[in-house]
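Input for the complex:
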Amino acid sequence: MKTREILRRIFWEPLVIISRDKAGLIGFIFLLFILLLSFIGPYFIKLDTEVKLDRIYQFPSREHILGTDNQGRDIFSQIVNGGRDVIIVAFLAALISTLIAVSLGSLSAYAGGFTDTVIMFITEIILTIPQFPLLAVLAAFVRLTNTTMLAFIIGFLGWPALARAIRSQVLSIKERDYIEAARVLDLGRAHIIFSEILPNMLSYIVISLIMAMTGAVYSQVGLIILGLVPFYGHNWGLMIQLAWTRGAIFYKGSIFYILSPIIAIALFQWSAVTFTRSLEGIFNPRLRAGE
Amino acid sequence: MIRIKKLFSNYIFLRIIRAILTVFIVATLTFFIIRLMPGNPIEIYIGQLMSQYGMSFQDAKNQAAALFSIDLDAPLSKQYVIYMRNLLRGDFGVSFLSQGTPVALMISAYLPWTIFSVGISILISFTLGITLGMLAAYKRGSIFDHIMSTIAAILSAIPNYLIGILLLIIIGVQLGLIPVSAMRGTVSPGIKPGFTWIFIKDIFSHALLPIMTYVVSTVGGWTLSMKSSTLNTLGEDYVTVAKARGLPESRITFAYVGRNALLPLFTSLTMQMGFLMGGSALIESIFVYKGIGWALGASIAQRDYPVMQAVFLIITIAVIVANFIADLLYSKLDPRIKIGGE
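Predicted:
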């Protein structure tokens, strides 16, 4: 296959299929918009940190697209600069939990027997422990000094549900003829798992990764709002936390200040979920027929 | 021998064993986090007492031991046994901040409110969701279906605590429909508990915002899953056969489609209970609804470790018990589970 052909397959064709699904397309566009805004936007729009007491709680105007906050700072600049950290932590956490889930899930299914029983037992137990309280308690003990640490903690607790799903996927793929053939050819366990089974699940893994990101955003912003992430910086979660703890949400005029980060997070979550739902349709045409 | 073998393949028996084992493991985990982690609460507390009140190390240590009901001089294995024995007796130690208050007493004051608000919410949300989902499935392609599915997708994607804050802002602050600060807490002062109209009205008005939040944030998920589950069931052979036999439409809808479409949703029900109980830490903190979740948030914020440790354990046990009950219900509804294992 020529490079052009491959590129066409990877990038163009999914886009064409997505464009047929209206909700998926809207989700995709919003997601792209938020990513561009959060990662490229900060180079053009600097975070407004200057306190201007004569301009507090201004309504949207040409000068301040989303109005100003309780200290007269521009809200739009806070939104533009507040997404990157949230998304990076979410991505890292999702990557970690997906990696653990894929390794343990496929190992469990492939090895079977005692290994399977032990891994699944551990999975079930971690799955039963309510995740958010565990995260909150751990956050109180482990000193969260930077974003990577936060991502690691969230990632290390987020894998069990996905591991179980991966296991059942591998179990069903394992029985197919081409795997049987590979086994007869004695290609080795590692080869069969990494070259025969996993590539067939790639789409499923990508979808799970995005879903894991939305889960990580939930835990992350929740921890920030509860005030359990002590490091400073600026992000959407912190905006909500400040507005909440300083009582700004109880003031009528603060509506744009508090609504902006909420809508930013909600939009990110919604577009990610909607986009993955239409991805599912692309990778698994049987689902489309069931609609 | 055969009887023992039969017992071990018994579904309910296995579930009980698993539930007990999970509680045991979580309790063990909590013990070792408290005792072994670097910067563990006992060390921190001893350090605090020494620096703040100028206590000697021995005095501080004794006070810490009393608080956590742990004998700090005993070997770790013995401490562990004592800790577990105290847990079995319901002895969780004493709170750091409200000195002298047994943690067990605090928990019994907070837990019922969370079970009450989360339980009512799940009941409302589940019933509403499956009704809307079935309607959407039966009228698929209609405007009703499109609007319902879109709203459901949006609601189920937004984190529940954000929905809580939104409700607070819109209903409480912007429209001023609800006196938000008067609705804090779980019950108004001076109202006696009992089966009186005043009491029931009061506890519902306090729980209104948390319940609304839970319902609004979960009803979308139920609607979507019930819709797809119903659509799948409608294509099954036994539904076609039932139609061919000329059974009345209502009987097909409820006894054939409804019941079978409902089954796969029960597994999500158990997941949801854990999720809501866990998320209550956020929701109850937002509304200052003094349930177990609020207690968790407050004890973490104030580093009240004995309360924090006990509350975490209790939330986990509550989830395990809820899962267990849901499993039993599920096995009653779907007899295949009991016979064929999983």
